[in-house]
Specification:
Elements: E1 4-9, E2 14-20, E3 22-27, E4 30-34, E5 41-45, E6 48-54, E7 57-63, E8 66-70, E9 74-79, E10 82-84, H1 90-106, H2 111-132
Parallel strand pairs: 1-9
Antiparallel strand pairs: 1-2, 3-4, 3-6, 5-8, 6-7, 7-10, 8-9
Length: 137
């Protein structure tokens, strides 16, 4: 079976590197699947779930904002966060959402801080979605 080489890189480290059969990405225009021989493209990613299929098994990662470059043989993902289900601390993510929502309710914050708080909520919600997906919550 044909494969793609997937690289997921964050500012801290290379989060994933392997040959895979399929990558499903949370693009800003909607969820997109990338198979081998996909047309070349570059697009922006939003916080969400990235799903990798390798040897018929799926690996779920929570990713933050970033970009993806696709060629016929490679997928290069540059994001500010990439966590596997095992790396996600559910309680910490829930606390982060609560703190961010409380900050928004306080009001009197500028547009820039509002955008940062909303981005934090989106990344925490992506983590919770990936962590809870197997439990059906």
């Amino acid at each position: 079976m044909a494969t793609l080489h997937l690289e997921i890189v964050t500012p801290e480290a290379r989060a994933y590197s392997d040959d895979v059969e399929l990558v499903v990405l949370p693009a800003v225009e909607g969820e997109m699947g990338v198979y081998p021989q996909h047309i070349p493209l570059i697009t922006q990613l939003k916080p969400g779930e990235l799903v990798v299929t390798k040897d018929g098994k799926k690996i779920h990662l929570a990713v933050g904002e970033g970009f993806v470059e696709v060629t016929g043989t490679t997928v290069s993902v540059l994001v500010d966060m990439a966590l596997t289900e095992a790396d996600i601390d559910e309680n910490a993510a829930e606390d982060a959402v609560k703190r961010a929502e409380a900050r928004l309710k306080e009001g009197n914050i500028g547009d820039e801080e509002t955008a940062l708080v909303q981005a934090a909520i989106a990344k925490s919600m992506a983590q919770l979605h990936v962590k809870r997906r197997r439990r059906g919550i």
